[in-house]
Amino acid sequence: MSAKRDWEEQISRPDAQRPARFSTLSDLELQPLYTPADLNEDYDQALGYPGQFPYTRGVYGTMYRGRLWTMRQFAGFGLAEHTNARFHFLLRHGETGLSTAFDMPTLMGYDADHERALGEVGREGVSVSSIDDMTRLFAGIPLDRVTTSMTINCSASIILAMYLVNAQRQGVAWSALGGTIQNDMLKEYIAQKEWICPPAPALRIVTDMIEFCARRVPRWHPVSISGYHIREAGSTAAQELAFTLADGLCYVEAALKRGLRVDEFAPRLSFFFNLHSDFLEEIGKLRAARRLWARLMRERFNPRDPRSLMLRTHAQTAGAALTAQQPVNNVVRVALQALAGVLGGVQSLHTNSMDETLALPTESAVTLALRTQQIIAEESGLTNVIDPLGGSYAVEALTDQIEGQALAYIKKIDGMGGMLRAIELGYPQREIADAAFHYQRQLEAGVKTVVGVNTHVEPEEGDPIPTLKIDPALEREQIARVRAFKQRRDEIKLKRALEQVAGACHSGENLMEPICAAVASDATVGEISEVFRRELGVYRDPGWL
Amino acid sequence: MEQRRLRIVVAKPGLDGHDRGAKIIARALRDGGFEVIYTGLHQTPQMIAETVVQEDADAVGLSVLSGAHMTLFPEVIRLLRERGAGDVTVFGGGIIPTEDVARLKEMGVAEIFGPGASTEEIVAWVREQVKPRA
């Protein structure tokens, strides 16, 4: 009898201590053991070499031996000067790129003095209503030497314009600017739910920005095609991957339809994935992501530039995995999730702070989160070898399985007519809601366990940890500033500039040029967004459960 | 005589777009036998109060994760009272620091369900605590 059959017989007797079924966080069933039989026979085709198609083992030839991932902590709260101080704090503590969190009014296209902004100014991120705010936000930051990521979507065109106009005024050429703007509207309708106008005009604006950056800001990433939020909304790992890549394919098709050649813009498409708690599943997901994107891009669009095939990604540890109960445990969760990201080969990483279930991070919490990355980079030895888990029977099996599941979803979406149509039909939204509900049922049944929540629960929580408080007085201050700003402007110049934006909404010309001119004429986030609302329409949540 | 089903509005006030929890709770309440009206996102307090009144709801659950709860909850309560619906049970959840929970209850919020509260717990609470409006 073979050794394998001996083992199978041995383990077939049920073990009363553990659950009957073993599955990943996404409920993907796992085998007890993986062996060489689970490896794809064709190494070159399935895995290959880092920096070479299909990039399974890494998007760059040397990976972290050549250059570490960018340590890029998402930061933003209060007014511009508070976030500017936090930016400088993080840079001093060793982060290597900036990442900006804006408040809900800014994200949704309202100035701080709008009635819908009441109670929300500076709470979830920094308040930016005007070019003055943008200038203060980046004070003292050498924009030609530091790359900035900005997490903003339906008002991204306006914020990018402000960043560009500010850079110009600082004497920095646009050709020297490096960074990313999230600007991924498709995932908004699916998951993050920040919108102004309906999907079709929103896609037009995204395409305008892809085109504009390809021509005028060549080092800039005009979209960060995101799975993070899809996962946070409750999707499985395979859905996260599938819907993200399907969004990406939609953007590529839109840009091609606009008349761009694939190699003109695809090298600057970037991605953003979640790093959740199931260690092996996340590593498999990231490797599957690179391979699947490369294969899809090659077979559908046939680029000549290999950079058009490379999935380069930022990643963030899962917010939804953090617990309010026993918050110090979150430090451990984040370390494991970050580790999965490094083993999965990400290009940029944000590690959550332990207090983020309760509030925005304090200085000490975010320092620890940054140190987590630095310890992995400097002490764990994992940066010495590229894709060290490559060849692991379990990891390769998961990579294959997740790729297969994601591809099945993508083909289904193809069948619906593409992602824009799928969104109108509510397909990804419903898949996500079903997955979220399924997980919640598993959690409440104890099938999935979370320490401190449904296992190892402490009846009395310890002393509460210190958390960041946003002073409500900041809102009044910002409202006063915005009003004062609005008083000081050349009203005629402003009016004409806003009319140009409105005209461009209908003429079909690229919106970025008129938006930059409007911003330079002191138009605010809210004012330009209002033009969008009027000219391009307002989207309302369909409210599907 | 058959008691009519309780009518619960689940609402997302303000600009916060995090609806995973609200949707799960809405589903769970519906599965629990209640009539559920989910408002969808980006509701002003006025819109929510209008919906509660128009739908003859017995209770409204507010979900806020953006930190704006101390503005939004009291405003909904105020508007409900203004419309003669002060007897509607107001409850909620989201990211609400413990120290704010006490203040919200003083203002008239019946209960706040923090992170880790199960749908079972919430459904049971609604069943026990929400009385049909006269």
Topology (SSEs and partners):
The complex is a heterodimer of chains A (545) and B (134).
Chain A: H1 3-11, H2 43-46, E1 70-75, H3 80-92, E2 97-101, H4 104-108, H5 131-137, E3 148-151, H6 156-169, E4 179-181, H7 186-192, H8 199-216, E5 220-221, E6 223-226, H9 228-232, H10 237-258, H11 262-265, E7 269-275, H12 279-301, E8 313-317, H13 329-343, E9 348-350, H14 363-379, H15 393-416, H16 419-425, H17 427-444, H18 473-487, H19 491-507, H20 512-520, H21 525-536
Parallel strand pairs in A: 1-2, 1-9, 2-3, 3-4, 4-5, 6-7, 7-8, 8-9
Helix pairs in contact in A: 3-5, 6-20, 8-10, 10-12, 10-15, 12-13, 12-15, 13-14, 19-20, 19-21
Chain B: E1 7-11, H1 20-31, E2 35-38, H2 45-54, E3 59-64, H3 69-82, E4 89-94, H4 98-106, E5 111-113, H5 119-129
Parallel strand pairs in B: 1-2, 1-3, 3-4, 4-5
Helix pairs in contact in B: 1-5, 2-3
The percent range for helix content of chain A is 40-55%
CATH class value of chain B: Alpha Beta
Q: Sketch the major β-sheet of chain B.
A: 5 strands, parallel
- Give the strand line-up of the largest sheet of chain A: 5-4-3-2-1-9-8-7-6
Give the strand content of chain A. 5-15%
Query: Termini distance of chain A?
Result: 54 Å
How many helical elements of chain B?
5
Estimate the global geometry of chain B from the Cα principal axes.
globular
Q: Give the strand tally of chain B.
A: 5
**Structural class by secondary-structure content of chain A:** alpha/beta
Structural class of chain B: alpha/beta
Keywords summarizing the entry:
heterodimer, A: alpha/beta, TIM Barrel, 9-stranded parallel beta sheet, 21 helices, 7% strand, B: 134 residues, alpha/beta, 5 helices, globular
In words, what does this structure look like?
The complex is a heterodimer of chains A (545) and B (134). Chain A is built from 21 helices and 9 strands. By secondary structure, chain A is α/β, with parallel strands linked by helices. Chain A has one domain: Methylmalonyl-CoA mutase (TIM Barrel, Alpha-Beta Barrel). Chain A has a 9-stranded parallel sheet with strand order 5-4-3-2-1-9-8-7-6. In chain A, β7, α12 and β8 form a beta-alpha-beta unit. The longest helix of chain A has 24 residues. By secondary structure, chain B is α/β, with parallel strands linked by helices. Chain B has a single domain, classed as Rossmann fold (3-Layer(aba) Sandwich). Chain B is 42% helix and 18% strand. Chain B is built from 5 helices and 5 strands, in the order βαβαβαβαβα. In chain B, strands 2-1-3-4-5 form a 5-stranded parallel sheet, sandwiched between helices. In chain B, β4, α4 and β5 form a beta-alpha-beta unit. In chain B, α1 packs across α5 and α2 crosses α3. The longest helix of chain B has 14 residues. Chain B is globular and about 35 Å long. The two termini of chain B are 16 Å apart. The mean pLDDT of chain B is 95.
